[in-house]
Amino acid sequence: MKLPDLTELAVRNLRESLLRNSLTTVGISVGVASLVAMLSLGIGLQQLASRRLMKSGLFDTVVVTSRRDLRNFAHEEERSGPAPGESRILDESTRQEIEHLPNVLEAYPDIRFITELRYEDKPHLTMVSALPESAKSNDAFEQMQGRFFSSDMAAEVVIQKAFAEELLGKTPKSGLDETNVASLAAPLLGKELVMRYAQREASPATSSSAAKGAAKDTSVASGDENLASVAYSVVSREHKLKIVGVADLDPESMRGPTRARVFLPLKLAESLHVMQPTDLREISRAATDQPAYSSISVRVKNPSQIRSIEDAIKKMGFNTFSILDATRSLQQFFAVLDLFLGIFGSLALAVASIGIVNTLVMAILERRREIGIMKAIGASDGDVKKLFFAEAGAMGILGGVIGVALGWAIGQAINLGTNIYLKRQALPPEHFWAVPWWLVGAAIVFAFVVSLLSGLYPAGRAARLDPVQALRYE
Amino acid sequence: MSSADVSPRNGTAAIHAERLCRHYRMGETLIRAVDGVTLTVRAGEFVALLGSSGSGKSSVLNLIAGLDRPTSGSVVVQERDLAQLSREELSHYRLHTVGMVFQSFNLIASMTLAENVELPMRFAEVDRGKRDSLAREALTRVGLRARMNHRPSELSGGEQQRAALARALINRPQLLLADEPTGNLDSRTGTEIMNMVREFNQQLGMTVVMVTHERALAERYAQRLIFLADGKLVGDEANPVVVSAAGIESSGRETVRP
Question: Cβ contact (<8 Å) for B123 and A383?
Answer without folding.
Answer: yes
